[in-house]
Amino acid sequence: MSKPDDTTTETGEESDDREATDGTTGSEAEEGSTPADGETLASGHGASPGIASGTVRIVADTAETDGVDEGDVIVTGMTTPEMVPAMKRAAGIVTDEGGITSHAAIVSRELGVPAVVGTGDATDVLADGRAITLDGQRGTVRAGASGSNAGTGSEDVQTGAGVDGGENGSGSTLAPLTATQVKVNVSIPDAAERAAATGADGVALLRLEHILLATNKTPKRYVEDHGEEAFVEEIAAEIETVAEAFHPRPVRARTLDAPTDELAELIGGEEEPHEHNPMLGYRGIRRSLKEPELCKLELRAFKRLHDTGYDNVEVMFPLPNDPTDVLGARDLMADVGIDPEKRRWGAMIETPASIRNVKEIAECGIDFAALGTNDIVQFMLAVDRNNGAIADRFDEMHPTVLEAMGEVIETCRTHGVDTTITGQAGSKPEMARFLVEKGITSISANIDAVPEVRQVVGRAERRLTLEAARS
Ligand code: PEP
Ligand code: MG
Prior knowledge:
Helices cover about 35% and strands about 15% of the residues.
């Protein structure tokens, strides 16, 4: 993964925190000097909000995570699925690489552990064993312990207001404050309880890749070593954790969408094709259609859950371009005995082709379309989502992107297809406002953003009602 631009924050603003007050960037590792408490040692993208103090634990590879104690701050190049147990123990996470859709960012947000990603040089400039304080909102890492940790762990999650029994039929014990549903993204089943406690109206995206990567084997190698039944059971058990936490609220799980460069890191990864542009490569539905037997194993896990009574589990397919892709996916579902007429299923809309073909895709019988803004922005603006050098151009509010999303929502609405946003941008108030005005069915946010997004959605809906009444 490329190094992000270390002078910009998540919002693309110039960061004034990078320089120490004396004009130098603190680097005790280089100089052997001890920076004063409060001095900025590193900065990057604020990826998971909260302020955390702890002792630096440099983790050069996954095998070293045993040394991470409760309350330490993991400092590493980039986190991997194998590090998740240590990430749960950590007070905070700092990485050299990655943007706000990287593994470290997604997982730390779900765990409620403050994180700063894409610093470029944290593993060089932070000395193992020193005390630091990181600000997961502003993206700064300072010398010294501030004394209080303020993560967004489960004890801090706001659970909304106005309990009245969940008359939206979602099964939530929290009031349905908005007509537009507010859902949540989940990548690690461990975060299911915390996600469910937000009162979200369901899960709009459960990424199977985090579940599978956590086995540390490529799916192909996993099946070779343990057999098909174990593979199906592994997936079914993990989805079940989330489906159970949310039942009867719907949980949309998505078939595998792991780029080859991530799979290459796993046992069996040497068999992965080497690609110059993995994001444009052999991933998502295009891979599933080429390796249907593997995808059918994933789908058998969905079927198993349906058969055991989890009627809230919905199937979603990533990265189609056109109806041929979507119909191919539907056939795979039918092959394993999932009736597309009886079970809710849908497709991600995340390539320019799928945006142009959305009418034809809507006519394939899908129940919902999910706007994957992480990929829409990457592909429409030609901005690699993992390349920090152009992170300031990763503009989810770009007029071209907004216009495209508005069209998708409108077309789907006229075809009776629900729409949602599952990209990172769904957690942004300005995006939530825009989408409510366009008539989206649901918005999905990160766990920590659910309460604010619900407020924003409620206000936007009330304004629309008021304006309609006045006119
Ligand atoms: C997206 O592209 O916005 C999305 C939700 O999918 P992923 O981030 O997994 O590519
Ligand atoms: Mg995507």
